[in-house]
Amino acid sequence: MPFYDALKDYPLHHVLVRHEQAAAHAADGYARATGNVGVCVATSGPGATNLVTGLATAYMDSVPVVAITGQVGRSAIGRDSFQETDIVGVTLPITKHNFLVNSAAELGPIMHEAFRIARSGRPGPVLVDVPKDVQTEEAEYEPNQLAAGYDIHPVFAPEDAHYARAARLIDSARKPLIIAGHGVIISQAYGELRAFAEKTGIPVITTLLGISSFPESHPLSLGMPGMHGPANVNRAIDEADVILGVGMRFDDRVTGDLSKWAPNAQIIHIDVDPAEIGKNLRPAVGIVADAKEALARLTDGVAPSDHAAWLDTIRSRNAIKAEAVELPSYIITPSDVLTEIKKGTNGEARLVTDVGQHQMWAARFYGYEKPNSHISSGGLGTMGYALPAAMGVKAACPDDPVWVVAGDGGIQMNIQELGTIAQEGYDIKIAIINNGYLGMVRQWQEFFHNRNYAETRITSPDYVQLCAAYGLKARKVDDRTDMADAIEWAMNQNGSVILDFTIVQEANVYPMVPAGGSVAGMIEDPEVIE
Amino acid sequence: MSANERTLVVLLQDHPGALTRVSSLFRRRNFNINSLTAGKSERPGISRMSVVVAGEAAEVDQVAKQLQKLIEVIEVRDVSDGAPLLREMALIRVQAESDKRGEITELAKLFGAKIVDISHRSMTLEITGAEHKVDSLVGLLDKFGIVEMVRSGRIAMARDNASGGAVWDNTDVLSA
Question: What are the residues of chain A with a beta carbon less than 8 Å away from any beta carbon of chain B?
Fold first, then answer.
């Protein structure tokens, strides 16, 4: 309360969320959209513990967030006082660093330090826990003074020899690939990635969080790798002789069984975090550097080249026949929703996706052109992320259309934030891809558990009535001929709108490399295999 | 020191909770730590840890690099090469009726151990040395009946002339 008492004296816009988890996700969304530090505040005890999922989400995806929590007074710490939680202990493994402030004199330097740590190197969340009596204590504030003794380790300057070796590998490659990850977006290396790809002619794969780091209409763009990547992308990885991974971490959803992944490839790995080099796989060359700088230097070091034949081979294997599934004409397919949203927004929108089947469909079928226009919880896979994160994205980019794409399961996990959205007057368009199931789990049950749909059937409220209760509008869309009109209607409404799209219950995400599997075990869509 | 062990020296800020961060990291990342000691260093405000890590080069590499990422860690050195000074201390209390005391005293003398406490029932030996030396003494004392024992874990320092002990920077280690 002392914090809030003082807040009115500062030119800050404070957003009162309905649940602290949403505050953490909103700060995360703001940070992803801008690259600046997002800030969230919570009270001690349950307020602080409610931030945990949001901080873990930000930590996994390297998002700069500063969380400020209240704590009981210094003399009450350790006595199991009312609303006391050791939040520094709780968040130890899910923050880049955290602080308990022991005096008002420390507060200024620690705050500066917290922001510096959050945004430096590989970004991440930092928590600052402030006891109540520290909040009321007075001390001299010295701007720009950093707390002593918190070293940020300089990134090892990679030697020229590393770049030279990488360049030699790239120049001699016959079937090379680039896999671009979130690091390209974080360092805003869009131009550098494009220049490198165009000079070398190497096809570009983008990981889930690397999506929108490279325009998908570009002739060299291939799409997403891994568990739900297109079959031809995974087959290309299987065959590649050199793979340049930049700002990505060879996550298990990308690689499956590491021992069988990219068996013919020599790996060049660029990452700003030294610990990522060699963590999951051992590269032929590891370069510890910011993606922007590394790609620029590599571009200078490589010879111009062209891999048209290799690209043609990959493209010729593309098995997607534009969802050419035989369905009654009124049925909405997941890809329809995405293509219609793109059409309706002219590709100007920022999409914030939740977690599950719709997330994969949104990753696959939208076709992202605009840099950093795809925002999603990748590493932690946090259901309930999209709606609150979109509030942060909208606050950061008020002039861009912001769309949430969520499942009927995930949207209900933070649905209370419709209240915040209404109060703030945010203009967020929310597309629910509604199949009446926790669809991704249902899909696993279909494939691996004999269609035993145990506890995945889920009902939804009537979103039209729900929105009406919040003073918002909604429309149920269950005929594909109504889709374009519904999207146009949504775009023309002032304020937030839900479009509740009914899709077939047993729609699946194809292809699928089962967890821990390899390309050999890939499950493809029975409808499109020729 | 067995073949697949490496010894890391870690300098870190003497902040409350810094040790928790290190031990939390080991648990979370599932690292195999054979020994860990912590104490003051020659620099005020800076603690020094000796960590003995079991595992292949790639695992040790991860331990060092993840440690280096902790904000309060100042430096991580691998001092395994160049015959580092590795020492452990132990206090060993053995049953010692009067007829056994001569033999135990003799063993202590051979090992350069000190007898630091004695009662009608027991003797307590203090030994400092390489881990295998402490192991040997413990083995020999076992037959008398060890009542209580405390071992410090290994502390480590590179030799003054050793080239080993460079600050961990190993993109080369991996690409070699």
Answer: 88-89, 92-93, 96-97, 100, 117, 149-153, 156, 158, 162, 165, 273-275, 277-279, 282-288
Instruction: Specify the range with the lowest mean pLDDT, choosing from A6-10, A269-273, A419-423, A474-478.
Output: A6-10
Q: What are phi and psi of A289, to 5 degrees?
A: -165, 160
Residue A120: name the closest of A40, A66, A162 by CA.
A66
- pLDDT, chain A, mean: 94
Q: Which residue of B has its CA nearest to A272?
A: B69
Rounded CA separation A214/A206 (Å): 8
Computed over every residue of chain B, the mean pLDDT equals: 89
Site of tokens 């076992």: B142
Burial of A331 (0-12, 13-18, 19+ CB in 10 A): middle
Task: Work out whether the CA dihedral A260, A266, A270, A276 comes out positive or negative.
Answer: positive
Are the CB atoms for A388 and A354 separated by under 8 Å?
no
Region label for A211, one of left (φ > 0), alpha (ψ between -120 and 50) or beta (otherwise)? beta
pLDDT at B1 over 70: no
- The Cα of A99 is separated from the nearest Cα of chain B by a number of Å equal to 10
CA distance A195 to chain B (A): 26
User: What tens digit of pLDDT does each residue of B95-153 get?
Assistant: 999 999 999 999 999 999 999 999 999 999 999 999 999 999 999 999 999 999 999 99
Residues of B with CB under 8 A from a CB of A: 13, 15, 17, 20-21, 24-25, 28, 45, 58, 61-62, 65-66, 68-72, 74, 169, 171, 174-175
ipTM above 0.90, yes or no: no
Give A280→chain B minimum CA distance, Å.
10
